[in-house]
Design a protein that fits this description.
single chain, alpha/beta, about 15% strand
């Protein structure tokens, strides 16, 4: 079978796949490069097929976009958090306007193409059977379209949300329709508009679970929200407007250099600031004061003590 040779193949055309392609082509503009995407739309979690009503970004303008092209504001923003369709449009425009050797990143994306096999060969070859133009290992990639592609470099940029995890219920009596939030945009309208669906159970505590709970409650459904009692509970909750005047939202506070030094992250360089905040009495007092204040504000915003049911959602803090 005849195969097609590429210098680079990137699996996934979400934000990471797009920026990986851009970075490589900036350094090697004449390279042959292809992005393989299972979905029929680029964007990964921000694909137009995965954008559901009420879906907003978790990061604000100035932090969600790529550094070389600022994301334009939109009237639909809230404290600089933008609707998901705005993020998708940004990624689509970014891929279309970054052109290398006469071909944009968007032109290099092969949509509706699932990778089904990857094989590493020690004998380099290209699609014609001749010696590869580059020495070293060669990757042979097979797709569900029956295509065989060969490359000298393979990047996996599929992210952590590309494959749904749905719990198994071992009972024949429990047979309601089930959907994953990956399919929320496609199937949620059917559930919300159906008069036969009156009760909805949401399992999980991530951002998409918050969105699903809000979506179905807004549609007049009775919602039971189940979060396992082992672990840290649901995702953190904070009010965007509860910030000092200088900052536009809470993300900007957490992204300052000062706050990074107060974080116990092992990847922070051990400099004088880290020593002060974590290994001196005054520094520990200041660090504890800052985090306790923020923790109090977040718990108050989440209203964990508002009712008996809500108190069960309080994170299990050490």
């Amino acid at each position: 079978m005849t195969s097609t040779y590429f210098d680079v193949i990137i699996v996934g055309a979400g934000p990471f796949g797009i920026i990986a392609a851009k970075t490589y082509l900036e350094l090697n503009p004449t390279a042959t490069l292809a992005l393989l995407e299972t979905d029929t739309s680029l964007g990964g979690a921000w694909s137009k097929n995965r954008v559901y009503p009420g879906m907003y970004s978790q990061s604000p303008l100035g932090m969600i976009e790529f550094s070389d092209v600022p994301m334009k504001p939109t009237p639909q923003h809230y404290k600089n958090y933008v609707p998901a369709h705005h993020v998708h449009e940004y990624l689509a425009l970014y891929a279309a306007t970054h052109i290398y050797d006469g071909k944009s990143i968007k032109d290099r994306i092969r949509l509706d193409t699932r990778v089904v096999s990857v094989q590493k060969l020690r004998s380099p070859r290209d699609g014609t059977g001749s010696e590869s133009r580059r020495r070293g290992s060669t990757w042979v990639v097979g797709t569900d379209c029956g295509q065989t592609m060969v490359c000298s470099k393979l990047m996996i940029a599929t992210g952590i949300t590309s494959r749904p995890y749905i719990p198994f219920f071992n009972t024949l009596d429990f047979t309601p329709p089930m959907l994953h939030t990956k399919d929320l945009a496609r199937l949620a309208p059917m559930f919300m508009e159906s008069e036969g669906v009156r009760n909805v159970i949401v399992i999980g505590g991530s951002k998409s679970a918050f969105d699903a709970v809000h979506m179905f409650i807004s549609a007049g459904k009775r919602v039971d929200w189940i979060i396992r009692d082992k672990g840290s509970g649901h995702a953190g909750v904070g009010l965007a407007e509860r910030t000092p005047v200088y900052y536009k939202n809470s993300h900007q506070i957490l992204s300052t250099r000062l706050m990074s030094k107060m974080s116990p992250c092992i990847f922070q360089p051990h400099d004088h600031w880290m020593h002060f905040f974590h290994q001196t009495r005054v520094g520990r007092w200041a660090t504890d004061m800052v985090w306790n204040t923020m923790q109090f504000a977040w718990l108050k915003a989440a209203r964990c003590g508002h009712s008996g049911d809500a108190s069960g959602a309080r994170p299990q803090l050490p």
